[in-house]
Design a protein that fits this description.
By secondary structure, the chain is α/β, with parallel strands linked by helices. The chain contains 8 helices and 10 strands. The protein has helices at residues 42-51, 53-59, 62-75, 120-150, 186-198, 207-216, 220-227, 236-241; strands spanning 11-16, 23-27, 31-37, 80-83, 88-96, 102-107, 110-115, 156-160, 167-169, 174-178. The protein is globular, with a radius of gyration of 19 Å.
């Protein structure tokens, strides 16, 4: 009998210089953890998680899973930040200080967060602001590259936090992208960019629109299907915050 929980369960990724291959660990403190060799690609870890789904659902105790969910949402500060689109998994180091605001600094390949981080809601809001800044640089750069490659120009791009859309395109070719795309696998994120760029030519979802999408992403049917469950890529704390 498999455990009764949604997929994927909360997990963390830890890189280890000693690890020679990817492995899974389940501990009372860390919960489900993926141990990754130092130079391994992050996408390998995500595929490994999918490949071991049956094992995880069998061995991860439901009570541990539900306790993790409650802790992540109500009490626990996130210990990692997984930005799949950029193939990054940041270990978070907290520096608790009584100061105005929360500050972020990347040092020694870790994300250092300084301030009143025990105020969980304020911490989550600050994390969203930081992710939006990262998305503003990364998603804009990627959209420019895809636009040039597909020869589909657009007028402007804005990074939003839409609750129901991953992206949108207006009739005057202004594109909005959801910062949550940073949590998507790169291929799925890129599909959203292609989808919105194709709307600069066809504003509907007609056969002509999908034919144009297919020119630049032949595997769009499977990606379109994956997009329907893409909310599962968001961390638990963000899903609850949104």
């Amino acid at each position: 009998m498999t455990a009764d929980f949604s997929w994927p369960p909360p997990y963390s990724i830890r890189r280890s210089a000693r690890a020679r291959q990817i492995k899974l660990q389940i501990t009372p403190i860390r919960g489900l953890e993926i141990v990754l060799p130092k130079r391994a690609n992050l996408t390998w870890a995500l595929q490994f998680l999918e490949d071991r789904r049956a094992w995880i659902e069998k061995h991860l105790p439901p009570i541990l899973y539900h306790h993790q969910q409650i802790a992540l949402v109500k009490h626990q500060r996130p210990m990692t930040l997984l930005l799949r689109a950029r193939d990054e998994c940041w270990t978070i180091v907290y520096n608790e200080k009584a100061q105005q605001g929360i500050r972020f600094k990347i040092q020694d390949e870790k994300l250092h967060i300084t301030g009143n981080t025990s105020e969980i809601t304020l911490l989550y809001v600050a994390l969203v602001r930081w992710i939006k800044r990262q998305a503003g640089v990364f998603l804009t750069t990627e959209l420019d590259a895809v636009s040039r490659a597909c020869q589909l120009p657009y007028r402007s791009v804005h990074i939003r936090g839409q609750k129901t859309r991953w992206g949108s395109c207006s009739r005057d070719k202004r594109i909005n992208l959801n910062y949550s795309l940073m949590f998507f696998p790169y291929r799925l994120m890129r599909y959203v960019l292609i989808h919105e760029l194709c709307h600069t030519v066809h504003m509907d979802h007609s056969s002509r629109f999908w034919a144009l999408v297919g020119q630049y992403e032949p595997e769009y049917p499977s990606l379109r299907q994956a997009l329907r469950k893409a909310g599962e890529y968001l961390p638990v704390w963000l899903r609850k915050l949104e």
